[in-house]
Specification:
- With about 140 residues, this protein is of the alpha+beta class.
- It has one domain (about 5-140): Endonuclease/exonuclease/phosphatase (Deoxyribonuclease I, Chain A, 4-Layer Sandwich), CATH 3.60.10.10.
- Helices cover about 15% and strands about 25% of the residues.
- It is built from three helices and seven strands, in the order αββββββαβα.
- A four-stranded mixed sheet has the order 4-5-6-7, with no helix packed on it.
- Helix 2 (about 90-100) crosses helix 3 (about 130-140).
- The longest helix has 11 residues, at about 130-140.
- The protein is globular.
- The two termini are about 20 Å apart.
Length: about 140
């Protein structure tokens, strides 16, 4: 599928994947839980002043309960925002490393990575192979 489509081509279901908090200036993107007690661990908040960029949640590209991938348009160019929660076993990072998805224009990747490493924390004495995986993911 071509992910460079114009925002006018997004279907109504994709446009309704976000909800607006009552009395709030933010749009909230969250995945619906698979089970009634399976609450989302990731969420993306977007200020409503940015809503003209046509944000849309894209769960069909990377379908993982601890990954949110949202796109927005600026001058008919798609940009991506990713928020992740990586558990103690680094399930999300392993999933992303093994997933063959090329996301051009990933603007920001945020979240809880659950990694301590001497690369970004000089007070930590060890290097982690998981941080190497993260660097590989980000270099794609």
């Amino acid at each position: 599928m071509d992910y460079t489509q114009n925002h006018s081509q997004l279907n109504e279901l994709q446009r309704r994947t976000f909800s607006r908090h009552s009395q709030s200036s933010e749009l909230a993107f969250a995945r619906e839980p698979y089970l009634s007690n399976d609450y989302p661990r990731v969420i993306i908040y977007i200020n409503v002043r940015l809503s003209s960029f046509y944000f849309s949640l894209q769960k069909y590209i990377i379908n993982h309960k601890d990954i949110l991938l949202a796109l927005f348009f600026n001058d008919n160019v798609i940009f991506w925002i990713m928020n992740i929660y990586s558990d103690f076993f680094h399930s999300v990072l392993k999933h992303l490393k093994d997933t063959e998805v090329n996301i051009m224009n990933l603007l920001i990747m945020t979240g809880y990575f659950n990694i301590r490493d001497s690369i970004w924390d000089p007070s930590f004495p060890h290097h982690s192979a998981i941080s190497d995986d993260l660097m590989i993911i980000l270099s794609i």
